[in-house]
Amino acid sequence: MSTETLSLSRAMNEGLRKAMENDPKVLVMGEDVGKLGGVFRVTDGLQKDFGEARVIDTPLAESGIVGTAIGLALRGYRPVCEIQFDGFVFPAFNQITSQLAKMRMRSLGTLELPVVIRIPFGGGIGAVEHHSESPEAYFTHTGGLRVVACSNPSDAYTMIQQAIACPDPVIFFEPKRRYWDKAPVELDLSAAASFESAVVAREGTDVTLLAYGPMVKTCLEAAQADEERSIEVVDIRSLNPLDESTVMDSVRRTGRCVVVHEAPVFNGYGAELAARITEKCFYHLESPVLRVGGFSTPYPPSRLEDHYLPDLDRVLDAVDRTFEW
Amino acid sequence: MTIDAARGAPPSTGAQSPSAPPELVQLLTPEGERVEHPEYDVELTADEIKSLYRDLVIVRRLDQEALALTRQGELGVWASLLGQEAAQIGSGRALRPTDMAFPSYREHGVAWCRDVDPVSVLGLFRGVNHSGWDPREHNFHLYTIVIGSQSLHAAGYAMGIQRDGGDDAAIVYFGDGATSEGDVNESFVWSAAQNAPIVFFCQNNQWAISEPLERQSRIPLYRRAEGFGFPGIRVDGNDVFAVLAVTRKALDNARSGQGPTLIEAFTYRMGAHTTTDDPTRYRLEAELEAWKLKDPIERVKAYLVKNQMADKDFFESIDDEAKTIGSDVRRRCLELPDPEATAIWENVYATDHSLLAGERDQFTSYLGSFEEVTR
């Protein structure tokens, strides 16, 4: 076992590098991923080391990035596409949902589409519009896609390699405001948990916080700050498929649950969690499952994003409310 | 004031109406006369020409069979290829087995050239599956219904060929309407920038359901290629010789590192867009009659007769063979089994998926509950 302290961005880079070393069919493609190393430097140095045929600076056309990645996969390659920002994924929506997601089923299982689509997501970086969104529910609603989100450097390193090895298409969400957070990363994957599993990020007994991506850290900070109650935090990690047993085990133990994400609450991923928890844990619940998230509006200008994004206080306010029943 | 008048006249920068009398490559006239072209030629033996004739007749017969099956309620819908046989057989027969073809949903003639069982083409239209053949076995991808999406898959596949080395090529089929789609234009950009070994084969059949070419373009489609940085060529899409020659050349160019070509096969959709369409609402009968004189099969027949390459017995034997193949396809179509309910959850993911497994098991037990009652 060997560990190294890395930023989340660097851990992604190391994970990609490892995958490219292990399998010559792995390609990296996207806008500015070559010499620049990507706008978040996730692909820094990869083109220098693996060449322009494997690290492809693409035309500025997101549908084209995903569409040609499908063609490369049909030829036996394992493309890893970078969508530069969350709000830029929509031009590729048809290629992802109608083409990539369905092709295995449409081919009666004869075609394999091992395509990973990396999307830096979420707000909190003071960006202009279309750079701070959380579009995960569009993709969890689409059969044929696997959808995951990493929350820390260790998972970034591990989960990207697992996603690339996966024979199915994977939408891989990266918490852009956590790119520069550092933590020790275990470089040996042999003991790593499956990327389909949720993990208990912090144990507690009174209430469960469910989160993924950037909100895991927010929830951990909230749990830390609460001196009265023992708060458990579960990092969902895999949004589709959902690791129901880890989630339900936790909620059955604590009896209370708050789901936290940056995406709008209405019709968001938390709605699915709340419905499933109500169905599976009905007799264990002391109070309804509450949700904390963005509002049902377009993402606001950055001077207002602190109001829009769940923070420690809004999370603890919801925790308080679960005890009011 | 009409919308056209309000929009003003087309620019006078040499723009040519997209449906003006075409300048195109032709090697066989509608009357069956062989003509020369300075750049394109094809040398074919009598047997090869007879083989092309056989293909043309059989795919037309299969198309008629599918139309009949639809009228009888055995297929949900059918997209007829009537009139486009030469464009599809000429280009399909230009391919090598290792080349990869990406069709839209009307390329039944190309499917025939790729040895796809015609019955498996019917599965999609009967609703028993979304596709019935293994694309890898035939190097013929799934039908793609979202207009133009497959052009990017072909461009990516061609990029894969480049990375593998070797001299395979990709060809992608789409229609005149698809040339307005972003994906088709992105695939032009991509393939040009990558110098990918790809042929864009546009069957301009003059109609995108009810919309004539004027709704899509101010210039002939083949001329769009120039702006993207690769050659475009217009070929008589009802001339199987010319289509074969032009497609071979474009494929050869792709193989030898000269990048993409756009071929506009100028043809005509003799039938409706699909069996749910009614062309009498938007086009004139006279137009159809004019195109009937340019029939892709009759001109080959005329050539074979004039040059004494085939006699009455030959034509009769081909008709009989087409009839036999048609009846066989009809019989096997009717025998296609409805899938089991659990097929809904099959092949969605490569490995087990807890959500789908849960839904499947729950639904299976729900269905089982009816069996309990009836027992």
Automatic annotation (TrEMBL), chain A:
Keyword hit for Transcription regulation: no
Domain of life: Bacteria
Alphabetical keyword list: Oxidoreductase, Thiamine pyrophosphate
Domain Transketolase-like pyrimidine-binding, residue spans: 6-181
GO molecular function ontology, one term from the record: oxidoreductase activity
Cofactor: thiamine diphosphate
Name by which UniProt lists this protein: 2-oxoisovalerate dehydrogenase subunit beta
Keyword check for Oxidoreductase: yes
Pfam families xref list: Transket_pyr, Transketolase_C
UniProtKB/TrEMBL annotation, chain B:
A biological process term (GO) from this entry: branched-chain amino acid catabolic process
Domain Dehydrogenase E1 component: 56-324
GO molecular-function term, one example from the UniProt record: oxidoreductase activity, acting on the aldehyde or oxo group of donors, disulfide as acceptor
Disordered: region residues: 1-23
Cofactor list: thiamine diphosphate
Oxidoreductase in keyword set: yes
Descriptive protein name: Pyruvate dehydrogenase E1 component subunit alpha
Protein keywords: Oxidoreductase, Pyruvate, Thiamine pyrophosphate
InterPro entries given in the database record: Alpha-ketoacid_DH_E1_comp, DH_E1, PdhA/BkdA, THDP-binding
UniProt organism field: Actinoallomurus iriomotensis
Keyword Oxidoreductase: yes
Species lineage: Bacteria, Bacillati, Actinomycetota, Actinomycetes, Streptosporangiales
